[in-house]
Amino acid sequence: MDFSGTWKVYSEENLEAFLKVIGAPEMIVKMRKDVKPVVVIEQNGKDFVYTIKTPMFTRVYSFTLGQETEIPSLDGRKVKCTIREENGKLIGEADKFTSVREIRGDEMTEVSKSKGAF
């Protein structure tokens, strides 16, 4: 599947608990509850450039499917993560969480789960 495009994130399940699990500051947790980001994906085969835009910040990172990479957290720390494509979804896995992103029409959903408990 080609994920290239600009996507509005309209659904983020478990966002607050996910942000707390990865250690985001309380100010970031409160701010992100009210802000739905726009995600721009540029895909070339298994290589991706992923841009997340909100009114407060823009984060850009790149990754190759199936290879470990470091992605920036909301507070600027780096989180090691491996991202794969499965059944038309981008699935990111790290030590503390799994994130599943799916495109539906012109919008994106994200479900995040901690590897411990929510």
Short note summarizing the structure:
Belongs to the calycin superfamily. Fatty-acid binding protein (FABP) family. GO terms for molecular function: lipid binding. The chain is 13% helix and 55% strand.
Task: Tell me the radius of gyration.
Answer: 13 Å
Largest sheet: 9 strands, mixed
Q: Label the overall shape.
A: globular
User: What series of H and E elements makes up the topology?
Assistant: EHHEEEEEEEE
| Counted beta strands | 9
Strand content: over 45%
CA(first)-CA(last) distance:
31 Å
Helix percent reads: 10-25%
Structural class: mainly beta
Strand order of the largest sheet: 4-3-2-1-9-8-7-6-5
Q: Flag low-confidence runs.
A: none
The average pLDDT value, as a whole number, equals 82
**Helix tally?**
2
